[in-house]
Design a protein that fits this description.
Blueprint lengths: L12 H30 L23 H12 L2 E6 L2 E6 L2 H9 L12 H7 L11 H14 L2 H5 L2 H17 L4 H18 L9 H14 L4 H8 L14 H30 L6 H9 L7 H12 L6 H14 L1 H15 L14 H14 L8 E2 L4 E3 L2 E3 L4 E4 L1 H5 L43 H18 E4 L1 E2 L5 E2 L19 E4 L2 H14 L3
Parallel strand pairs: 2-6
Antiparallel strand pairs: 1-2, 3-6, 4-5, 7-10, 8-9
Helix pairs in contact: 7-8, 7-18, 7-19, 8-14, 9-11, 11-13, 14-15, 14-16, 14-18
Length: 526
């Protein structure tokens, strides 16, 4: 049988049919893809400042107080702004509504973190605050949720917080000029007590020194070179001796402080557990959960040390520092708060958390401190994990997302004359707006909201209430008797705290001295 073959280049009728269908399918798919591409390309980014090649908007970003620039952009372009820092897309959210719509309602998309190359890879401070949205993050978050996100659990911490508030008063009586150090000691002592079951006895304690050095280094090490390595990670491979790589030398110094801060208290707990003398603490609970046959692997120890290191990232001390500055500048507010305390609890005891609901003016003072100070003006940046759409605007995957908390505290529609310190703006409020309670936004948004916010708020309130009840805070005076009025200046950085100032702190009366001594004895009966 002779088989006939089609001449080369000529197809049989059946084959021609298949090819025709294939060509038609390719054409349809090409048209659909082109249409989708036009739609995608046609979707606009949110408005923002004009960009230039390579730099994007970096040339428009000042080295300090970027939150002010972002607010100025917001005044011109709206609440949601698009920019580029080199090749990184950036979205700035200047309103609570935008943060709620994106970070809260679309938390799965907006819960990432930028790479933070300087902190995560060079300093090697990998903790709940900075790490990516991974299973490890979820594990750390679960540990913190158990420890801090139940009011019933947080209420059990009040005896420790009260005792540390009384120690703070005693320290302020003895050496009032060192009030900033005493405030730091108060904040760290609560963390050490709850986190590790360790009691801090003096400002010379080695833990305080390491914590203060480490935290200060981390939050003040982000110079221009460090920023560049976040945008160009390849710079991390530069040798330390090369020009422009000085950030690597700095990182080596910071890394040592971080390791001490993380490991020294944890190993003290491990030693106490081995001898059977460990006190209940968060570290104790996590170690018990993690150890197998009484042993802890190096990897587990590293993870637990890192997880507990996030305890130090709170800004309780910064907020109390702001409170003291506000009282120095506004004696009428201090006097009014003192009068309320005297009217409600008298002068026979110091205030405790049970008094909070009966002291609305004091609560208004705390709310205004949160608003006026905004300790973390831009929050901690999020990263958009997948493409999104908001009111018709394209939000590109991989965008760094800033929540400009400072801009929210300066919203003139809700806070008239926002630079003025005025607790009265939080009195006699009858609606549930987030603006009427800054605690609803200063601690962040979505799945990355600060897990220790309830503890931090209680610690701030207890310190402020006890200081107001027992002490007078006034302007310092020169040797010739002239008042020294502090300037309202806040340091630039990821954390914004008041620049150093002087003031005069003294007991309100002889009875105040007696109250403090009595409280200290009651806290430590032995």
């Amino acid at each position: 049988m002779i088989i006939k073959r089609s001449p080369v280049g000529v197809l049989s009728p059946d084959a021609s049919g298949y090819v025709g269908v294939a060509i038609l399918a390719v054409l349809v798919l090409s048209l659909l893809y082109a249409s989708w591409t036009r739609i995608k390309v046609g979707r606009r980014y949110p408005p923002g400042p004009r960009r230039v090649p390579f730099l994007g908007n970096m040339h428009q970003l000042p080295p300090h107080y970027q939150h002010i620039t972002f607010k100025e952009w917001g005044n011109k372009y709206g609440d949601v702004i698009y920019a580029r820092f080199f090749s990184t897309p950036v979205i700035v959210l200047n309103s609570i509504d935008a943060c709620r719509a994106l970070m809260d309602k679309k938390g799965a998309k907006y819960s990432g973190r930028p790479p933070f190359t300087f902190h995560n890879e060079i300093i090697e401070w990998r903790n709940l605050v900075l790490m990516q949205y991974t299973e490890q993050w979820r594990r750390h978050r679960r540990w913190y949720r158990v420890a801090f996100e139940s009011k019933a659990v947080v209420d059990t911490y009040q005896p420790l917080q009260m005792a540390e508030a009384h120690k703070l008063l005693s320290d302020l009586l003895q050496t009032p000029d060192n009030f900033i150090l005493h405030i730091k000691k108060y904040a760290v002592s609560i963390i050490m007590g709850l986190g590790y079951g360790i009691s801090i006895t003096s400002m010379d304690d080695e833990f305080i020194q390491h914590v203060d050095k480490a935290v200060h280094s981390v939050f003040h090490s982000g110079g221009p070179a460090a920023l560049l390595v976040d945008f160009f990670p390849i710079l991390k491979y530069l040798p330390a001796w090369m020009p422009g790589a000085g950030f690597k030398t700095l990182a080596q110094q910071v890394r040592g402080s971080i390791r001490d801060m993380e490991y020294m208290p944890l190993r003290r707990v491990q030693k106490a557990m081995a001898s059977g003398t460990a006190k209940p603490s968060i570290a104790y609970s996590i170690l018990q959960e993690t150890m197998k046959d009484g042993k802890l692997s190096a990897a587990d120890e590293r993870e637990i040390a890192s997880a507990l290191g996030a305890l130090y990232a709170g800004e309780t001390a910064t907020t109390i520092h702001c409170f003291v500055l506000a009282m120095v500048l506004h004696p009428e507010v201090l006097n009014k708060a003192q009068a309320e305390l005297h009217r409600v609890i008298g002068d026979s005891r110091l205030p405790d958390m049970g008094d909070r609901d009966a002291l609305p003016y004091l609560d208004a003072v705390i709310m205004e401190v949160y608003r006026w100070c905004a300790p973390v003006p831009l929050g901690v940046p999020h990263q958009l994990l997948e493409e999104d759409d908001y009111t018709g605007y394209r939000m590109p995957r991989g965008s760094t997302v800033f929540s400009n908390i400072w801009a929210m505290t300066r919203n003139e529609q809700h806070y008239g004359d926002p630079e003025r310190f005025d607790p009265d703006r939080f009195l006699n409020i009858h609606d549930e707006s987030d603006f009427n309670d800054p605690r609803k936004y200063i601690f962040g948004f979505g799945r990355r909201i600060c897990p220790g916010r309830f503890l931090a708020d209680a610690s701030v309130w207890l310190a402020a209430a006890n200081i107001i009840a027992a002490l007078d805070i006034q302007k310092a005076r020169t040797p010739s008797g002239e008042e020294i009025t502090p300037e309202v200046q806040f340091a630039s950085g990821s954390v914004s705290h008041p620049k150093p100032f002087v003031c005069d702190i003294r007991p309100r009366s002889k009875k105040s001295n007696e109250l403090i001594l009595r409280a200290i004895r009651a806290d430590c009966p032995t």
